[in-house]
What we know:
Number of domains: 4
Helix content: 40-55%
CATH topology of the largest domain: Transferase(Phosphotransferase), domain 1
Order of helices and strands: EEEHEEEHEEEEHHEHEEHHHHHHHHHHH
Structural class: alpha+beta
Bound molecules: adenosine-5'-triphosphate, magnesium ion
Distance between the termini: 38 Å
Number of helices: 16
Amino acid sequence: xxxxxxxTAATIDPALLDLPWELPLENWPADVLAALPxxxxxxxxxxxNLSERVIAVKEIGESVAxxxxxxxxxLVRLGAPCVTPTAxxxxxxxxxxxxxxxxxxTEHLSYSLPYRALFSQYMRPETATRLIDALAVLLVxxxxxxxxxxxxxxxxxxxxxxxxxxxxxxVDAETGELHIEGLxxxxxxxxxxxxRTNIIGELMDLQAGALLxxxxxxIEIGDRIVNRYNELWDVLTAEESFSVxxxxxxxxxxxxxxxxxxxxxxxxxxxxxxxxxxxxxxxVVDAGHYHRQIMxxxxxxxxxxxxxxxxxxxxxxxxxxxxxxxxxxQVAHAWMADVFEPTLDAVPIELRRKLEPAEIxxxxxxxxxxxxxxxxxxxxxxxxxxxxxxxxxxxxxxxQSYLSLGDTQEMDAIFSDDEAEVLExxxxxxxxxxxxxxxxxxxxxxxxxGMKFKGE
Length: 456
Ligand SMILES: Nc1ncnc2c1ncn2[C@@H]1O[C@H](COP(=O)(O)OP(=O)(O)OP(=O)(O)O)[C@@H](O)[C@H]1O
Ligand SMILES: [Mg+2]
């Protein structure tokens, strides 16, 4: 480690010191790199294996690195869905004493996918609308805590599967600003407008690369972010007025918010002078309604829709077992031992890392439903998981189709040419890759078969 180098981090993993900081990030050797898909970016970003985890390393200017690090820390503290910052490294120089740019290190968001990785000729056009819906929720959540993004785009977002849909995470906070007093409508509108413009551009780019069907109306999808955002923002924040005889509307509003995955932290209620009309307005709403319930009941850290799915299954288990009057905490314990854990235990280790456990569970439930319909009787969870493991999980369609894409432009966006060449020459490539790709939930065979290298 050069004398002048400085690492700023909340907790420092000593393994961080062993990385080749004296080399420009572009020239880092393949043996430290984790070959995982990456989105488009201006700066150089690499994924690195570090103490059994993967970190994302981005080379940027010193002040920008500190700024982004602090902003991400604030966002994590406020519970926003975003990548977690690990460290800032400054004062780097190479062996000849030439100054090198600073570094921002974040934790690689496991099981996350950049949007370009989600598109291929086999991808359904609905994927685009699902991504937009997830991005609208993310933008509303960020605005609720007073965060102005300044550069909303699909490229600056990561997606995780969430019970057949997606959950979006912020990955690039460089242009963001935190306004704890709340955002003005102007700031919010600026973000929404930019989101719309950027999304249309990004989707057109996919169409130009034949990665999205040309019949898909990109303007309509761009408009969707505006509509979804406004709808959600209204349900979460708008004032509602009704006659005092309709008091049920208070409970209704809260239920509506819960169903959208939000808890009401504070609600103001007022009556007019005559006492005939009532006005309510949610003042504090917290995302993660289902996530928190599952966390409390099972200790599992799951996405919103996955949590909702698990709670529904828990409720049907409660009814089926005749335990309607037992405390939910006790039933949850039994449900974990009788249903959730045996289902995942039935999945062989090598397949288990393809998807997050809660997503596998969701897919088994879906599979059971389709199987029961086809067979004409109620298929058991054991039968369903066996069939799912035999017929569905090994060929997980979207990842495989993406990996066997063989599109040079797409691969360029994900692996730089140099990196691809280095990996190609590396005898450990297959091993290195299998591990990384498994963790990511991808099939290494499809990957090597579909990969194109520079000069091909
Ligand atoms: N912690 C992380 N986990 C997973 N992927 C990450 C992480 N950090 C970065 N990436 C990947 O690297 C890509 C580029 O990162 P980022 O957007 O921060 O770079 P940038 O150069 O600042 O982008 P821009 O061109 O928008 O300024 C992301 O789209 C994402 O795919
Ligand atoms: Mg970016």
